[in-house]
Amino acid sequence: MAGTPTKRAPRKATTSRAAAARSSAAPVKPRVTLDLDSISKSKVFPDLKLPTAPFTFLLNGHTYELRDPRDSDWKQALELARNPFLLMRTALVGADDPIDEPTEMEMACCRERLGLVSQDVADAAELVADGRISGENVVEDPVPTLIDRLTAADLPAWKLNALFDNWHSYYKIDLGSGKGLLAALLGVEK
Predict the structure, then answer these.
(1) In Å, how far from its chain's centre is CA 131?
(2) pLDDT digit string (tens) for 73-117?
């Protein structure tokens, strides 16, 4: 039969159609190897008997509390290892809490921390008027915080060393191993 069309068999799905069909299905979640949402410090450091109470110290009649330095965010670890003041500030519980009846030295430390130009508002206004500084750094009444109180305290270097030694010992951080604070902060001292 000339001129009669022949029937074709139905086509199979091509590779690209099959791939499209598979991609529209719900993605398969990979198996979780480590659940950081539920892991605890005691599980990571099973051989350490970590204290449950915070480390506290008394200085000039004021009590301060320091967290375990290992609880610092990992993104800050390198900077914290290089800067003992920043490490102390990060671990100081309530570092940003306002203090009552600040001394002149605590006010000066607050102004320095905030990058404020002058202690005297009249002097600052004159500097702004002369165009020597921007008005954005002039604050009449900055609020000193606990870190300003600690910074303003007279603290000889040997007492600061005693503080750091006792703080690290309290949280079972061995800096004598020669690995340094960065290893301790990242928890690789074991």
Answers:
(1) 37
(2) 888 888 888 888 888 899 999 999 999 999 999 999 998 888 876
Radius of gyration of the CA atoms of the chain, in A: 31
pTM above 0.85, yes or no: no
Task: Count how many Cα atoms sit within 13 Å of the Cα of residue 86 in the half-sphere of its side chain.
Answer: 10
Contact 64, 150 (CB under 8 A): yes
DSSP class of 97? S
Report which of 169, 172, 187 is spatially closest to residue 48, judged by C-alpha positions. Answer: 172
Q: Tokens representing 93? A: 């519980």
**What separation in angstroms does the CA of 145 have from each of 14, 79, 92, 113, 114?**
69, 22, 11, 10, 11
Residues 173, 121: contact at Cβ < 8 Å?
Answer: no
Domain boundaries of the chain, sorted by first residue: 51-98+156-190, 100-144
Taking CA 156 as the corner, what is the angle to CA 86 and CA 89, rounded to the nearest 5 degrees? 15
Summarised one tens digit per residue, pLDDT across range 161-170 is 999 999 989 9
3-state helix, strand, coil in the chain (%, to 5): 45, 5, 50
